[in-house]
C-alpha cells in the first residue's frame, strides 16, 4: 500500500476491519452520531458496568444488611476482591492493591503513612506541572507536620512548560528529600515518566517514591512490583470507566506491609478483628490497611463489570491499539493540519507517549466548542489546550479520521469564530 492511501477514509475503515478489539465497542453506550474523545476525563458506561451496578442494587433490595456477607459480591470484601482484579493492571500481587477512597484522599493517606519528616529528610519532591489536587494535598500534609510548603515542597521545573526531564528530577533527589510523588503520565502533555528508572534512582538515595496513575491506569501496562515502586494511587472514572465519582485505588509495595496507616479507621482493620469493636486497631497485613471507613459500595459496583473487560483483553492489547490510534491521529494531524497553528505537545516517541493527545492553539476554547457543535467531544484544558483521547475499547480509526477532517473544516471555514473563546465551568 502506498503512503498516500493511509490518509483516506477508506483506509481508516480498513484499519477498523482489522481491529481485534472492535467487538468491545458495542458493549458501551455510545450516542448515535457522537464521537467521544474524552475517555481520559470520564470514561463511558459499558453494559457490563451497568449490569453490576444493577446487581448491587438488587442485593440491597433483597438482602438488606446481609448483603455485607451474602450474595454474589459480598460488600464487606468488595474492596479486596476488586483490588485483586485490579492487580494485573498495575503489575502487583493481589494483596498489594485495594479499591478505596479517591485519588486525593489516597494521596493524603499514603503521604500521612510514609512521610515522616525528621531533622534531615523533611522535604517532598514533585514537579511543577503536577495536577493541582496533588499539590494541594502535599501542601496540607507538610502543614500538618508543621512545615512550610513554600520551602519544603520542591517542584522540579519543566524546561519547556510541557514535559519534565528525568535528569532534572534525579538531580533534585537531594539528601533532605523524604518522599517523591510524581505522575506516571502528565495530564496535559501525556508524557510517560520512566517509573522504573526514577524508582531506582530514588532508592539509591534512600528516598521513598510513589506515583499518581490517574492517566495511566487502564491506558498503559505497569509493573509496579517489579520496579519496586513504594506506593501508587489513582482514580477509576477515567480510562477504567467506573463512572462519575467511582471509588479509586491504591497500591502499597509488600515491603511496607506492617506500616501503620497514617489516617486510620475501622476499615483499616484485619477483617476477622474488625467487629471485635476493640479500641486498639489491628491493621490488615496488606494494602487493605490503608482503607478508612465504610466503602462507597454503590460507587464501586460498576467497576466489577468494567474490570472484567480489562482482564479479558489484557493491558498489552489495549496499549497496542491505543498506540495505533494516537499514532494514526498524529500522522493525520501532521498531514492535514499543517499551517493552521496547532502545536502537538505530546512526546512523539511510543515509549513516552501516553493514551491521549494534547494540541495547543490560541483559539482552543472555541475550536472545542465548534467540535462539540459537530458532536465530537474533546476535552478543553485552560488556557489553550485540546486533549483528544481515542480509547482502545470503544473508539475507532474512522472516528480519528473524521475528527481530523472536521478540525480542518472548522479551520478552513473559520467556523470557530462563531463561538466565544472562553472556557465553561467544568473544563
Ligand atoms: C483526574 C486526576 C485527579 C483527580 O483527583 P480526584 O481525587 O479523583 O478528584 C488527580 N490527579 C490527577 C493526575 C488526575 O488526572
Brief synopsis:
It contains 14 helices and 13 strands. The chain is α/β, with parallel strands linked by helices.
Topology (SSEs and partners):
Blueprint: H1 9-18, E1 35-36, H2 47-63, H3 78-90, E2 97-99, H4 103-114, E3 123-127, H5 132-144, H6 149-152, E4 153-156, H7 166-171, E5 177-183, H8 195-204, E6 208-212, H9 224-227, E7 231-234, E8 249-252, H10 271-274, H11 301-313, H12 315-336, E9 343-344, E10 357-360, H13 364-373, E11 376-377, E12 379-381, E13 385-388, H14 397-412
Parallel strand pairs: 1-11, 3-4, 3-5, 5-6, 6-7
Antiparallel strand pairs: 2-8, 7-8, 9-10, 10-13, 12-13
The structure holds pyridoxal-5'-phosphate (PLP).
Pyridoxal-5'-phosphate (PLP) is lined by residues 102-104, 131, 133-134, 183, 187, 212, 214-215, 235, 248.
Textual characterization of the structure:
- The chain has two domains: 4-30 and 314-418, Aspartate Aminotransferase, domain 1, CATH 3.90.1150.10; 50-312, Aspartate Aminotransferase, domain 2 (3-Layer(aba) Sandwich), CATH 3.40.640.
- It has a seven-stranded mixed beta sheet with strand order 2-8-7-6-5-3-4, with helices on both faces. Strands 9-10-13-12 form a four-stranded antiparallel beta sheet, covered by helices on one side.
- It has helices at 9-18, 47-63, 78-90, 103-114, 132-144, 149-152, 166-171, 195-204, 224-227, 271-274, 301-313, 315-336, 364-373, 397-412, and strands at residues 35-36, 97-99, 123-127, 153-156, 177-183, 208-212, 231-234, 249-252, 343-344, 357-360, 376-377, 379-381, 385-388.
- With 427 residues, the protein is α/β, with parallel strands linked by helices.
- The longest helix has 22 residues, at 315-336.
- The mean pLDDT is 96.
- It binds pyridoxal-5'-phosphate (PLP).
- Residues 102-104, 131, 133-134, 183, 187, 212, 214-215, 235, 248 line the site of pyridoxal-5'-phosphate.
